[in-house]
Amino acid sequence: MRPDVTQLRDLIAGSPDLGRRPAAGVPEALIRAAEARVGPLPASYRWWLAEFGRGRTGSADIATVTPAEFADDADAVTADWRLSGDRLCFSSEPDCGDSYSFALDLRAEAGDGEYPVVCRDGTDGDEYPVAESFAGFLAVRTARSSGLGDGPNPTVARLWRSTPGVLLDNGVLVYGPHCIAERNETFEVPRYAPEWVLVGDDSGGGGLFMRRHGRDRTRVFRLGLGAIGADIEGVGEPVTDDLLGWLRAGAT
User: CB of 205 within 8 A of CB of 225?
Assistant: First the structure.
């Protein structure tokens, strides 16, 4: 999924763990100068730089862009040590902890301007995938720091690896890790439908529900938010069994 900038902004605003203050956006000219040294930067990372300039996730600083005279400083994404072959490190934990890089040899999705994010384990040096975009990296980190793990089920976890939620023009909203817990608590889903999770809504009083457990964790049902009960499958309206495809199609 292409990162949803509106939801990304909401994620950052609602996630103190990102520690974006003090921060200031980087001018476009400096971002282009950095790209002249390290190559095209992922679209959602460019957006982050232009909006906030710098920040952190947990104990790991996120690299920024600096004026030319400071381009080799450790905090700059243009520092010589950050680009190693087809890996561009943009965040690393202190004391030889894990490091996070853009996999420049892999495109997350044709035409979306993103690169997948991989982690290099600080203990054994193994590499493993983390997210499909920088926006997804922030969503994954926020989910884990908020006690949500990878997500309430594999389908939502897959979405979050690309974007922290989606808001469509028709009002359909699929929640990111910054708001999903609050929405479920507000409508008392754990009390009335403990096997289910409210993953979004249609902005018209209808909730979008998926199962938390079992084999059937791909189907989405629509049900009025005032009618939540244990038998969501029985009384709800089947919507799709391919959430990401449905969202790409504009939730038609």
Answer: yes
Residue 4's alpha-carbon distances to 44, 162, 244, in angstroms, are 9, 9, 13
Helix (H, G, I), strand (E, B) or coil at 248: helix
CATH 3.40.50.720 correct for 179-248: no
Quote the DSSP letter at residue 16: G
Superfamily of the domain at 5-144? SMI1/KNR4-like (3.40.1580.10)
Token pair 């990162």 in the structure block, residue: 3
Task: Collapse the DSSP code of 90 into the 3-class scheme (helix H, G, I; strand E, B; otherwise coil) and give the result.
Answer: strand
143-202 pLDDT, tens digit each: 999 999 999 999 999 999 999 999 999 999 999 999 999 999 999 999 999 999 999 999
Q: Cα(2)–Cα(248) distance, rounded to whole angstroms?
A: 9
Does the model's pTM come out above 0.70? yes
Can you give 107-171 as a three-state secondary structure string? CCCCCCCCCCEEEECCCCCCEEEEECCHHHHHHHHHHHHCCCCCCCCHHHHHHHCCCCCEECCCC
Rounded Cα distance between 108 and 30, Å, is 25
Q: What is the pLDDT of residues 50-62, one digit of tens each?
A: 998 888 888 888 9
